[in-house]
Structure formats: structure tokens, C-alpha cells
């Protein structure tokens, strides 16, 4: 997914979300990268809001981080343009 596909606040929210659940679950960037079969550098890019993973990779990340279904559905709504709110208020981890 390119930077232009999602506004900066969406990319930042995703980065903050994965950072929150990585820390909460004691998962390193290296371990998450290995679980998703990608580079650690890519995890860093996501956490810094520089890019977003492809939609199919989002599911892998959520599973690897054991992110609750409620949060997954909230984020899915943001990814799907049909469900995007007029004003983005961020994601709300538990």
C-alpha cells in the first residue's frame, strides 16, 4: 500500500496500534517480522506511519499480535472506504 492510499493519520494510527500491542504482548519487532515473514525494517516503517501493509498482511499482523476482534473490526472499517468516517478519531486499543 502506498503512502497516498491512506492519509497520514490512518498510517499513524495503525503504527501506534501495532506498537501498543507489541509492547503489551512482549513481542519484539524482530519476532513480529519473523511471524509475518517480512523484514524488521518494514515493521519500523509501519510503526512510524511511513507506510501501510497490504490488506491481507494486516490480518497476519493482527493474528500475530493477538489483537482483539473488536479492534480488528474497527480497523477494517477504516480500511474499507465505504465505512470510513467523515472525520477520523483514531483507533482505541483496549
Describe what this molecule looks like in 3D:
There is one protein chain. The chain is an all-alpha fold and 94 residues long. The chain has a single domain, classed as 434 Repressor (Amino-terminal Domain) (Orthogonal Bundle). 57% of the residues lie in helices and 0% in strands. It contains five helices and no strands. Helix 2 packs across helix 3. The protein is globular and about 35 Å long. The model has no long low-confidence stretch (mean pLDDT 82).
Index terms:
434 Repressor (Amino-terminal Domain); 57% helix; mainly alpha; 5 helices
What is the overall silhouette? globular
* Uncertain ranges: none
Distance between the termini: 26 Å
Q: How much β-strand is present in the residues?
A: under 5%
Number of domains: 1
Query: What is the typical, i.e. mean, pLDDT?
Result: 82
**How many β strands by DSSP?**
0
SSE-based structural type: mainly alpha
The CATH architecture classification is Orthogonal Bundle
Rg (CA only): 12 Å
Give the helix level as a range of percent: 55-70%
Task: Summarize the helix and strand pattern as letters.
Answer: HHHHH
Return the CATH class.
Mainly Alpha
Largest sheet: none
What's the total helix number? 5
CATH fold topology: 434 Repressor (Amino-terminal Domain)
CATH superfamily: lambda repressor-like DNA-binding domains
